[in-house]
Write a structure and sequence with these properties.
Layout: H1 18-28, H2 30-39, H3 51-73, H4 81-103, H5 111-120, H6 125-146, H7 158-161, H8 176-186, H9 189-195, H10 200-206, H11 212-222, H12 229-241, H13 252-259, H14 266-271
């Protein structure tokens, strides 16, 4: 039909991004799908003639797209509990902002729905906004109940994420001696420049020699796994490495390389190997 996409996407629970993607694809191809199911004499054809249903579809495409963005931002090798808490707290605050917008019958924060509403000149936007408001409220309450302490973040660990913020020592929760060490560290211009070029974990490891106690406290907060990302990556890597044709392969060393973001020292590895000489 000359569409941008060649096919629809199917949802699978294993691929956690698929729900948002299929909703976006279905909304983009709604006219083509409507024509197809009309030819098939399907009862679902009436849905694509219902403006209220199309608005709900557009909203779901938008909200799942935002949830996908949140999920993707929380993936990665160098994530920690402090940064993940900040991302989740920010998303809950966004939900409250979206709620305020919808309460004023504005859907500008949902681009797909907003464009559809402008193009279709929806008459019952107030009804749609009531439905969205109810869903956003339940979503916010569900996240808050799942992460009960997320909105009452402990500010005493802010110095770990950035020890060079002004007045970071005022709420550090450290002893007097460690607070003095933190003030000394925060006043070091050379360390501040170094902090801008490395990750938070690398920074605290590099200053361990001079600020041992501060480094140990920081690393105790940064080391715990904030998500199951590494576990999921390991299973994915193993499924690619250990196929049915290599089912007796020991994948321990291969998995270490596959799930690590540290580049192997190939020169050192090759130097320890004896080259094969001709006989």
């Amino acid at each position: 039909m000359g569409s941008e996409h060649q096919h629809l996407l199917l949802h699978t629970e294993v691929r956690w991004l698929s729900r948002g993607k299929i909703l976006n694809r279905l909304f983009e191809l709604r006219q083509e799908v409507h024509i197809f199911i009309l030819e098939q004499k399907s009862a679902f054809s009436s849905l694509f003639e219902n403006q209220d249903w199309e608005c709900r579809l557009a909203y779901l495409a938008d909200i799942f797209d935002k949830l996908n963005d949140l999920n993707l931002s929380m993936q990665g090798f160098r994530t920690d509990e402090l940064s993940l808490n900040s991302k989740m707290c920010a998303f809950i605050k966004k939900l409250e902002f979206w709620l305020k917008k919808v309460q004023r019958n504005s859907v500008s924060v949902f681009p797909t729905l907003d464009k559809f509403a402008d193009d279709s000149e929806i008459d019952n936007l107030n009804t749609i906004c009531n439905c969205i408001r109810e869903h956003l409220t339940k979503l916010r309450d569900e996240l808050v109940s799942y992460f009960p302490s997320i909105m009452n973040q402990d500010r005493t660990q802010d110095w770990i994420q950035n020890p060079f913020v002004e007045d970071v020592t005022s709420s550090s929760g450290l002893s007097d001696k460690l607070t003095e060490n933190l003030i000394e560290l925060a006043s070091d211009r050379a360390l501040e420049l170094k902090f801008q070029n490395v990750t938070v974990s690398q920074f605290w490891l590099e200053v361990k020699g001079e600020y041992k106690e501060l480094s140990e406290i920081a690393m105790s907060a940064l080391l715990p796994f904030g998500s199951t990302y590494l576990c999921e990556v390991s299973f994915s890597a193993m499924s690619l490495i250990k196929t049915k044709h290599r089912n007796r392969l020991s994948v321990q060393n291969d998995l270490i390389i596959a799930v690590s973001d540290i580049e192997p020292r190939f020169d050192n590895i090759l130097a320890k190997k004896q080259p094969q000489v001709s006989h």
